[in-house]
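Colleagues,

For the teaching module next term, I've prepared a clean inverse folding example: a structure given as tokens, and then the sequence designed for it. I'd like students to try predicting residues themselves before seeing the answer, so please don't circulate the second half yet.
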């Protein structure tokens, strides 16, 4: 049986999107998702995203399998792609979404609300950051305590790390020159470090000024990617906690910029950025 798909990317973080609204379980197994994501023998992607029926009053449910077959709690760039994909599905079915359509989407990290804007950008309410060691989780600090500028030994070097969960775990390191970081070597060592029992996404951040950060990322289960939405959110939160940046800033990723705001009014993090359809097809 052939399965229809659309290919989308958010700042180069690319995904295969599948209309899975007819059933509550993904149409592919994690092993099949690995094959689809293969850039030589498959479609090629950082992950496969399934648009499933809503749960507990939500409009839709999001599931995602990474390119290694693992399942993350959520994906910031992926949920922007999903919102565009859903809007296109609804438009094709005669449900014009309008210029500022918002969706409630159930994820393994809770309900996330992306809103399509008239300028083509998508603003996502990413929820409140989680800052305690047991929420991330990590053993770098005692449960109930934050992990801010804690020392971690990786690759015979001591790094000052700050940890934040945006529904999925992040380890943020501020460096002088992000381009000089050996990401392919360091990324896996952080990801699989024993202090992170569920592995970790790792962001290296260069502070250009208080409203502009440069970021490179090693994503848990996907490796080096061109962008990571939850990582950009976590990076800004970590920047505020360590007094590196203001509560609103541009985060420049290899694939392009995201605007991130950690609202003082409601403690929620808002991410704004693009999502673009690349092509559609069918896969056996």
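(Answer key — instructors only)
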């Amino acid at each position: 049986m052939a399965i229809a798909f659309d290919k989308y990317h958010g700042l180069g973080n690319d995904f295969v999107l599948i209309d899975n609204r007819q059933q509550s379980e993904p149409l592919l197994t994690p092993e099949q998702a690995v094959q689809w994501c293969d850039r030589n023998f498959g479609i090629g992607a950082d992950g496969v995203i399934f648009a499933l029926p809503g749960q507990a009053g939500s409009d839709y449910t999001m599931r995602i399998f990474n390119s290694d077959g693992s399942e993350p709690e959520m994906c910031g760039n992926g949920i922007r792609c999903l919102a565009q994909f859903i809007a296109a599905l609804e438009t094709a079915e005669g449900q014009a979404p309008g210029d500022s359509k918002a969706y409630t989407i159930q994820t393994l990290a809770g309900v996330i609300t992306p809103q399509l804007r008239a300028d083509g950008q998508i603003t996502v309410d990413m929820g409140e950051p989680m800052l305690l060691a047991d929420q991330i989780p990590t053993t770098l600090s005692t449960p109930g305590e934050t992990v801010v500028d804690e020392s971690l030994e990786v690759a015979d070097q001591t790094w000052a790390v700050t940890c934040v969960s945006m529904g999925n775990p992040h380890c943020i390191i501020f460096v002088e020159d992000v381009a000089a970081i050996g990401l392919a070597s360091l990324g896996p060592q952080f990801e699989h470090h024993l202090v992170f029992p569920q592995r970790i996404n790792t962001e290296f951040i260069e502070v250009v000024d208080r409203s502009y950060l440069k970021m490179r990322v090693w994503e848990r289960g996907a490796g080096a990617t061109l962008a990571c939405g939850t990582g950009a959110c976590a990076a800004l939160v970590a920047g505020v906690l360590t007094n590196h940046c203001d509560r609103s800033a541009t985060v420049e990723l290899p694939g392009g910029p995201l605007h991130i705001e950690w609202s003082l009014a409601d403690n929620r993090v808002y991410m704004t950025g693009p999502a673009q359809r690349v092509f559609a097809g069918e896969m056996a």
